[in-house]
Design goal:
Number of helices: 6
Strand order of the largest sheet: 1-2-3-4
Number of strands: 4
Structural class: alpha/beta
Order of helices and strands: HEHEHEHEHH
Radius of gyration: 16 Å
Strand content: 5-15%
Low-confidence stretches: none
Shape: globular
Distance between the termini: 40 Å
Mean pLDDT: 92
Length: 144
């Protein structure tokens, strides 16, 4: 943590630490000066007993929501995935692999197509769960 503290102090921009899967790790990062955490298992569950992002995110968000930025990164490919991660406590939902595939396969038009589909899917999921705005998304839509 001393190295992270040194990095956080050295940069003039907020530092976000990716790869957080426990509340203890998140708290250590915040104590070291991180402005945010990215709950992520770096692209996959390599072992069958490893927790997924959706399993660990609620416990982390229940203690840290509003104190630091909470990002979620876990194979997001639809607007429904975005809705779920926001409902579980994320402030920001990261989309990586699928945008890269869209860019590789279709260039800027492919990325626009993918993002427009994701937005429409999120809007549809919000209508179906009775949520009027992104700021109103919470866990009640998952467990109602």
């Amino acid at each position: 943590m001393a190295q992270l503290r040194e990095l956080a102090r050295a940069f003039k921009i907020p530092v976000v630490v990716k790869g957080i899967m426990t509340l203890d790790d998140a708290l250590r990062c915040i104590d070291a000066g991180a402005a945010g955490i990215a709950v992520s298992n770096h692209g996959g569950r390599r072992q069958d007993h490893t927790a997924g992002i959706a399993e660990v995110l609620p416990a982390i968000a229940s203690k840290l929501k509003g104190k630091v930025a909470i990002l979620a990164d876990g194979c997001v490919q639809s607007g429904t995935d975005v809705l779920k991660y926001l409902a579980l406590g994320a402030d920001v939902v990261m989309v990586g692999r699928h945008i890269l595939r869209a860019a590789y396969g279709g260039g800027p038009e492919g990325v626009a197509l993918f993002m427009n589909r994701m937005r429409a899917d999120l809007q549809s999921a919000m209508v179906l769960t009775g949520v009027g705005s992104v700021s109103k998304i919470d866990s009640r839509i998952l467990f109602a």
